Amino acid sequence: MKIGVYGKQVLNEESIDFVHFIIDLLRNKGVEVFIHEAFMDVIRKGKLVKSKAHSFSEKDEVVGTFDFMLSLGGDGTLLETVTIIRDKGIPIIGINLGRLGFLASVSKNDIYYAIDELLKGSFGIDKRSLLYLESEEPLFGDLNFGLNDFVIHKNDTSSMITVHAFINGEFLNSYWGDGLIISTPTGSTGYSLSCGGPILFPQSGSFAVTPVSPHNLNVRPIIISDESVLSFEVEGRSSSFLVSMDSRSTSVNYDVQMAIRRAPFSVNLVKLNNSNYLKTLRSKLNWGVDVRN
């Protein structure tokens, strides 16, 4: 079995020791371990990598032979892991090195259980849809896809912008404000939620369109089918505006037209038998907890 490992780019000493422990654990169970070259530099700081592990980059052909990808960090790290495997369909399991995440939901205390279940094949696969950006200019190169969201946003110091949105070529609305978020079900618990957007269940087959600080208070988030194609025209007083795809962002001129659709591939997340989406929601959002106690 071959397992690729990618992790957070800034780690404290305790987390680095834990990463070495995971690598040794996998090696002792007969797993061939491949560590992303950027992460290899992180965990080598101040110490040697005791166990033998190969180094790889996302361009190497060996990536396509991985049985799993281990993401060590948090939800942001898992989003970066998606850019490594791209459309190869390799199952990802997220090991959280900090607080419980929505995506990286396996805690340090559960690492023995998680590795055993992984090697026994005792797990499910949670398929998650992605957004795919089409634009006149290659805004993010070949990384024009995102698991969480696509955001159109004003520049930090500029006045509000106007986003004219269309669904399948038909005019939807003009949004005056700080911007607009197009969110997948996976990303609905992120930036969109903080702006008043709805929580979408992973298999709902929908996207959320959430305005950011809208000028008109009667404008509300809406849910659309993920079979739809959303296109945009943006106006504003400044020379440009910002767009982001997950953790990647760039400045764009107003004459650039963009469209968002569902990506032709999905991301496979490992779902252990003790994991549950509703349980994670209750834990992260403190549902059912009386804060007065």
Can you put this structure into words, describing what you see?
By secondary structure, the chain is α+β, with helices and mostly antiparallel strands. The protein folds into two domains: 2-129 and 266-285, Rossmann fold (3-Layer(aba) Sandwich), CATH 3.40.50; 131-262, Tumour Suppressor Smad4 (Sandwich). The chain is 19% helix and 34% strand. The protein contains six helices and 19 strands. It has helices at 13-28, 37-43, 75-85, 111-120, 191-194, 277-285; strands at residues 2-7, 32-36, 54-56, 68-73, 92-96, 123-128, 131-135, 145-146, 149-153, 161-167, 170-177, 179-183, 206-212, 222-225, 230-235, 241-245, 248-252, 258-262, 267-272. The strands form four sheets. Strands 8-7-18-15-10-11 form a six-stranded antiparallel β-sheet. The chain has a six-stranded antiparallel β-sheet with strand order 14-13-12-9-16-17, with no helix packed on it. It is globular, with a radius of gyration of 20 Å.
